Amino acid sequence: MKLGFFTANFTEKPLEEVIRMIEPYGYEALEIPAYEGNGQLEPTDVLKPEKAEEIKRMVKSHNMEIAALANHSDSFLIMGPTGKETDFIFKGTPEEKVKHGTECLIRTAQAANALEVSTIVGYPGVENWGRFFFFPYGQGWAEYEEQFVERFTPILDKFQEYGCKFAIEIHPNSFVYDLKTAVRALELVDYHPALGYNLDPANIQYLLLNPCTVIDTLKDRIYHVHAKDAELAEHNLGAAGTLQHGDMHDLDRAYRFRIPGWGDVQWKKVITELSLVGYTGPLSYEHEDVTMSRMDGVKKTAAFLKPLLIENVYEGRQDKLFGEGNEK
Asked: HEC string of the chain?
């Protein structure tokens, strides 16, 4: 496993400047935003002659690697919302938004192929997440399942063509928001080899899921992992629950995103289960903690996570007690 960094944490800065900022703290693998207009890596630029090689050389010169591209914004349009809620991503009719999201996500796969990156993180979106509740339209979620198959099967086929995998980030307000919907999505596309998941323990803790259970169920379909923590503030939980709306800064907030080690995620257990299912990729630090600066997070996350990362799998013992047939 490697200590990773999501460069969108400083999306207002050029890519190499961000790399220089984090380099002293031991980060090894990058997750780079690739949605349209992000300012760090534009897929249309990557596809220009020699540009991909230039980016790869630059990253390698800092002793890092690109582990994943991320397109959370454009991909979100594919299943919605397609109304005014997503005008900040792209303005247009619902049909135009779906088309834009689809084309941008496929272009991200082309860019990933040029960069020799196999994983793209994103969301499928969903028009109305409130349909997870059976009232007032009980068949509503089944309609979204049909939509997922119709819209994402061709995209996944393209990803496979370009040697990429789509790692859906399990997240509230999206078609895949818990373990059941993650498993169901795989079933719907006949376990398409290009479909898997980005595990963000903080997101699933929002719904009181156990990250270790998710890991043990999804196993090798976990293609990428976010290093983000979350806190259920017990002194507020009894009054607010976990579906409270409002600003993350609110003092009465029951659910808060935190940096790793400052929330409720049990990282040793998470890393243990990841190791047991064969995950050897990065833990990509994403900052959404409103209690401290991003550079505080850069320093504290590296100091906390780096000593916990498992470098190599257990090689077995060769003494007499653990000889052939008796290895543990």
From this structure: CEEEEEHHHHCCCCHHHHHHHHHHHCCCEEEEECCCCCCCCCHHHHCCCCHHHHHHHHHHHCCCEEEEEEEHHHHHCCCCCCCHHHCCCCCCCHHHHHHHHHHHHHHHHHHHHHHCCCEEEECCCCCCHHHHCCCCCCCHHHHHHHHHHHHHHHHHHHHHHCCCEEEEECCCCCCCCCHHHHHHHHHHCCCCCCEEEEECHHHHHCCCCCHHHHHHHHHHHEEEEEECEEEECHHHHHHHCCCCCCCCCCCCCCEEEECCCCCCCCHHHHHHHHHHCCCCCEEEECCCCCCCCHHHHHHHHHHHHHHHCCCCCCCCCCCHHHCCCCCC
